[in-house]
């Protein structure tokens, strides 16, 4: 579904309402994205991302003992990620993994970092922190 172009009925809207609908239409037409991949690891998986125009960041987490990623799961315990959002995130979403994996947050995140705990530290994963 494509949104209506507010310019087609702008003459019927008050100025502030027209400006608001134009900004919403511009955002929806501009394809909101979570991030753009910028590099791949040795297996061909994207491992670094440029922040998109959404309100979160994509982070690649390598399996324990792997190399080529900014973050890897620890042998045991939790992984602390410096997310760079400059605000407390709501949470995270597992975008992809190469093995069965669930992720939980054992502690509340803050404006600098989020702590994640994997069910399987041998899995590579991409998470979206929002």
Helix content: 10-25%
Poorly predicted runs are none
Largest beta sheet: strand ordering? 4-3-9-6
For the record, give the distance between the C-alpha atoms at the N and C termini, rounded to a whole number: 25 Å
Q: What letter string, H or E per element, gives the SSE order? A: HEEEEEEEEE
- Radius of gyration from the CA trace? 19 Å
* Total beta-strand segments: 9
Provide structural commentary.
It is a single chain. With 130 residues, this protein is mainly beta. It has 2 domains: 1-31, no CATH class; 35-129, no CATH class. It has 1 helix and 9 strands, in the order H-E-E-E-E-E-E-E-E-E. The chain has one helix at 15-29, and strands at 35-40, 46-51, 57-62, 71-72, 79-82, 92-97, 103-104, 113-118, 125-129. Strand 1 and strand 2 form a beta hairpin. The chain is elongated and about 65 Å long. The model has no long low-confidence stretch (mean pLDDT 86).
């Amino acid at each position: 579904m494509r949104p209506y172009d507010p310019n087609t009925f702008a003459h019927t809207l008050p100025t502030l309402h027209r400006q608001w609908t134009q900004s919403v239409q511009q955002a929806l037409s501009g394809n909101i994205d979570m991030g753009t991949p910028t590099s791949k690891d040795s297996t061909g998986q994207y491992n670094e991302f440029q922040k998109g125009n959404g309100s979160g960041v994509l982070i690649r987490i390598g399996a324990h003992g792997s190399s080529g990623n900014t973050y890897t799961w620890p042998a045991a315990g939790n992984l602390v990620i410096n997310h760079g959002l400059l605000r407390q995130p709501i949470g995270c979403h597992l975008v992809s993994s190469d093995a069965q994996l669930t992720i939980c947050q054992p502690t509340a995140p803050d404006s600098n970092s989020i702590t994640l705990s994997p069910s399987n530290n041998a899995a590579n994963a991409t998470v979206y922190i929002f």
